[in-house]
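User: Okay, second chain of the day. Same drill as before: sequence in, structure tokens out.
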Amino acid sequence: MRLGVVCGVLAVLLSGAVAPAAAAAPSASEPVYDYAKAVRETVWVDIGRDGDGDGRSDRVAADIVRPGEAAASRVPVIMDASPYYSCCGRGNESELKSYDSAGKPVKFPLFYDNYFVPRGYAAVLVDLAGTNRSAGCTDIGGASDVDSARKVVDWLNGRATGYTAKTGGSAVTAGWSTGNVGMIGKSYDGTIANGVAATGVAGLKTIVPISAISSWYDYYRSDGATFGFNPDGLAQTVEARNSGQNCAAQNQLLRQGATANGDYGPLWAARDYVTNARNVRASVLLSHGVNDLNVKTIHFGQWWAGLNVEKKIWLSQTGHVDPFDYRRADWADLLHRWFDHYLLGIDNGVQNGPAASVERQPDQWADQSAYPAAGAVGTTLRPHASGSLGTGAASGTASFTDNPGIGEDTWVTDPGSAALTYSTGTLAADLQVSGTSSVTVTATPSTSSARLSALLVDLGPATIRNFAGTGEGIKTGTSETCWGASTSGDDACYRVATADVKKVSYTILSRGWADLANYASLSQERPLTPGTAYTMTFRLASTDHIVPRGHALALIIGGTDGSFIRGPAQPGRVTLDLAKTSASVPLVGIPPAATTHPVVTGGEHVPSAARAELR
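Assistant: Same drill. Structure tokens below.
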């Protein structure tokens, strides 16, 4: 029997007598440890790098809370490694770490410690190098960031050295740890979980990435197009409240490596976890909002596709939001069963059943056996000169004039000459888009530089989560629910969030952007010759969306989507060869061959600020 788990006892009535009690297999960990008596400590783990150039190997702070009873001699670990514990906060209430006058950790953000420590787990919150109390400098998803957490996993398994102090001090071991580690976190935190898992480090049994990045190139760039912000800005934000180390040299490397032209270079290759997804040995419980315009959905799609491990996925209608704030009770229950299974070895069957749970309407969820959905087939849809979108062959040409001053909302409702709209027309049956789409164009620019953008749009009325609102699909109230034990310095209670909904006349379900100059290679753009045709394929964001009967599916193609990307040096006119232009869309259902498209007005405007910040 594992420590921290209460075993059931089966009583069997035989011939009027009670048989001897027989130990049954545990079904779940129970809160049998006193949270008020938990051990709270900090260990500084040597990561073997000198990112701040002070001549000393950097040590990162791992703040630990674990059961204090002698019975809890060895426990597994739930880890959240983050750069945000002093600068920006974690969760919907932006919680920060706090410490007593002796420097001992008091406040652990989020509910993981409150809920799981009484159930026989340790919670370990790691400050990434260069942030809060850790030495070194952040490198925005690079080796230092990843090693900040990976080395703590090593320390928990006896393979790295931890100390009682940031400098000097005595070596300390993690004799209380079973070595089984689960990493969890939203946004940057979940990104680090992805990065550590991609190293294949032993002891990491599971990860729970929430709205997480899988390739940093795709956070700052898109097939050669740029979103207008760079990693050195984020570095300066998270380093603002470090211990005083000078990270100017590291930040300069970030500036130099993130070239302005959108090419995929060595800096991005070193931060591309998808290329090493085959190394992942940990199970994966993934969550993402299909309307997340911060960490865009291409991240979960390509990461999921590259994994060959036990995995489950939740896809909500929200933007950049934690499941704890839109499906709280179900999420806490799933986490409990997930960690019990993968960290305590309890055979509770959580790994079985539906692989995906998708929010179809606000607070209405549907399970499906797979993601992409079973039966989804990559279907080639072609734009026709008539304005229709279908599977039949197309011919002719069509042109648009790039206008970087407008974006997707105007493209759908009043495109004018700035974008081209093609539609299936009214559908006679539901059509599910499930997976990652792409668009191939053969385009002739009138100038020496050109951008391309494309949208997949559900044309028809719906009630959706207001993902473009301040809460990105949730409204936070004043009442609270409590998840675990509390102390005077660490409250387990959180405000309840409800769905923020909005009625719309259309829904943009997938987006993609590209620089035509990268038609031949993402690693090196090539000069464009006006009047010359170029063929390029670029990706659209991953999704799972049902276009219902009576609606229409539209493909919109234009130049610079001003809601997201930066325009070219010389915006001009772009002509498409429709016979050589198409979209590959994973569909469940049969689209029409060709028809005409309806006119749509009004809808959901997405402000450019929606893309601006990773939290």
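The first strand starts at residue 9 and ends at 10.

User: Thanks, on to the next one.
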